[in-house]
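FORM 7B: Structural annotation worksheet

SECTION A. Query
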Amino acid sequence: MAERRESIHGQWSGRWAFILAATGSAVGLGNIWKFPYITGENGGGAFVLVYLLCIAIIGIPIMVAEVMLGRRGRRSPINTMRHLAFEERASRFWQYLGWAGVVAGFLILSYYAVIAGWAVAYIFRTASGAFTGATADGVSSIFSELIADPERLLAWHTIFMVITLVVVARGVRSGLEVAVRYLMPTLFVILLVLVGYAMNTGHFAEGVSFLFSPDFHALFYQLDKNGVEQLTSEPVLIALGHAFFTLSLGMGAIMVYGSYLPKGTSIIKTSVVIAAMDTLVALLAGLAIFPIVFANGLEASSGPGLIFQTLPIAFGHMPAGSFFGSLFFVLLAFAAWSSAISLIEPAVAWLVENHGFSRISATSWIGLGTWLLGIGTIFSFNIWSGEEYQLFGKTFFDLLDYLTANIMLPLGGLLIAVFAGWQMRRTACQDELGINDGLIFRGWYFLLRYISPVAVVIVFLNAIGLLTF
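SECTION B. Predicted structure
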């Protein structure tokens, strides 16, 4: 039995506070923006089934492990891994797993805040009626003008960073917990209102069919560049990768949130609830988006532009479109906000623990660094978009996105599984999870040791282009 530890940062008031916070971390642009368009591109319902299976075999086992490590260490991810490595008599180099998570969260927030700024900007554009009656070219022009203006992007980036820092600076109970107690219920209410709106488009059944009617032929066969149908595994790999990334694994956020979790709370039960709520948001977003897309004769498989270029066309041609379009972008901004506060928290916690910073000072310095790095992403869409500013054919933003999403996060998730499954004593896992050596523990332990690591390796190799089949 490990000695009783307490986080110097405080802890959540209870189980539901942690669930809301971790769900807020997991629910972000990936749920509202990415999940609908990758579903549209990869066969609808069949893709959703594969995605749910991947959540069960890779997402939940690693989430349980990351929360478990966080609560056992009760420190920032860096100090947690340093302490647990010592406790388990493992190599001191395991502390670099904590470093990788903190740095990944810092880098991701630098460009995440820029994209979130687009969502904030679109709230006001939609409310002003800018998209009313607009053609596809008109909407595309509005988007192009936004990202081509570095001063405007900097303003929205700054606004989003400031509201994120205000929450984090107030601490665990007064800042993070208060924010998610309001943000997450509001997010769900807005989603349900938008689903209700979608039900009145006359195409809701078509949206439901698209999301939930499995078409395995569309999942496994896609057209190549010559228009010839080819057998492919790419949609399965995309589902596997998204199942991992959607739960905010490997970036230190879930680990540091776990360090604030009260001792008596069931980690396995709460992790399952968080994964279920995260998935529910993604599915509700699909139910809100696809009927609107179909009602306007638009393409469900329109890729990353679905949110910022396709949906505004739909809202611009629907009754009360300006109101509901604005509501949609409020939803998007709220989802990004709840994720952003979790991305910066690991670095802030480390500064407070190791260098004696006050909470406000630590948040200010980390926030300033993140804001400055975000300017590189802003310039990637305009001033630095030319080939002369690119490295390996990628802009500054593309490089950060590739480094974090394709390398740092999969490696972080893999190492979490390896440490918890192979370096940590089996009895220590049982002690922290608070369960005996029964069927539930054995099932989780088997998935963590053998299945999840293999799945993450497949995600990693596919992401860097070393695996195609």
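SECTION C. Observations
The chain has a mean pLDDT of 90. The longest strand covers residues 221-223.

SECTION D. Sign-off
Analyst initials: ____
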